[in-house]
């Protein structure tokens, strides 16, 4: 029979997994624990954290609180590897996306040119330079990001395909929340 994984190691593994988004294979190399065990440890540790912290931070609403409706907006930036390097939680739901974006630390840094965005580069076997882009909808200010064509009836097939591919990219972030 194998030895149990110490609690501190399980917690360290879980925090690293959640914070970095590393694959279970890279965690296997780091902790020398099988990937199936890593998945189990992360799942069990998250359940313990939720059970411990939920009563403290997510108390069930009282009857008088149920009349109050609270909307919270979430803003997230995702990368090509499905990691979320930036998440802004807590803006009031009545504010529109462009206001939330411009007031966020990320939005102001992007608009002011303070982000360390990689320069355009030419990947191997491709004869054109590619730039880092941000995908957004019509609510975001047109800066260095990509927006879909407006809701017009006479879009060409190429414009419809472009809109479809952008909406697929947007869904990655929406599904993360």
Provide tags for this entry.
177 residues, 6 helices, extended, mainly alpha, two-stranded antiparallel ribbon, two-stranded parallel sheet
Structure, described:
This protein is 45% helix and 10% strand. It has 177 residues and is mainly alpha-helical. The protein folds into 2 domains: 7-57; 69-176, no CATH class. A hairpin with an 8-residue loop joins β1 (72-77) and β2 (86-92). The chain starts with 6 loop residues before the first helix and ends with a helix. The model has no long low-confidence stretch (mean pLDDT 78). Pfam families: DDE_Tnp_4. It comes from Artemia franciscana. Keywords: Metal-binding.
Mean pLDDT: 78
Largest sheet: 2 strands, antiparallel
Instruction: Report the portion of residues in β strands.
Output: 5-15%
- The overall number of domains is 2
Shape: extended
Note poorly predicted spans: none
Which series of helices and strands comes N to C? HHHEEHHEEH
Instruction: State the strand order across the main sheet.
Output: 1-2
Q: Could you tell me how far the N terminus lies from the C terminus, measured between alpha carbons in angstroms?
A: 40 Å
Helix-and-strand structural type? mainly alpha
User: Count of DSSP helices?
Assistant: 6
How many extended strands? 4
Oligomer: single chain
Rg over alpha carbons = 21 Å
Helix content estimate: 40-55%
């Amino acid at each position: 029979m194998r030895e149990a994984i110490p609690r501190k190691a399980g917690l360290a593994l879980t925090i690293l997994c959640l914070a970095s988004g590393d694959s279970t294979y890279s965690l296997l190399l780091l902790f020398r624990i099988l990937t199936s065990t890593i998945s189990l440890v992360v799942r069990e540790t998250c359940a313990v954290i939720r059970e411990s912290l939920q009563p403290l931070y997510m108390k069930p609403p009282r009857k008088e609180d149920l009349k109050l409706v609270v909307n919270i907006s979430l803003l997230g930036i995702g990368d090509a590897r499905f990691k979320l390097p930036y998440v802004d939680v807590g803006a009031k739901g009545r504010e529109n996306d462009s206001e939330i974006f411009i007031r966020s630390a990320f939005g102001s840094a992007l608009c002011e040119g303070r982000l360390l965005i990689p320069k355009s580069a030419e990947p191997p076997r491709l004869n054109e330079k590619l730039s880092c882009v941000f995908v957004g909808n019509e609510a975001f200010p047109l800066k260095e990001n990509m927006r879909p064509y407006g809701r017009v009836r006479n879009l060409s097939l190429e414009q419809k395909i472009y809109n479809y591919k952008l909406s697929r990219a947007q869904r990655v972030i929406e599904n993360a929340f």
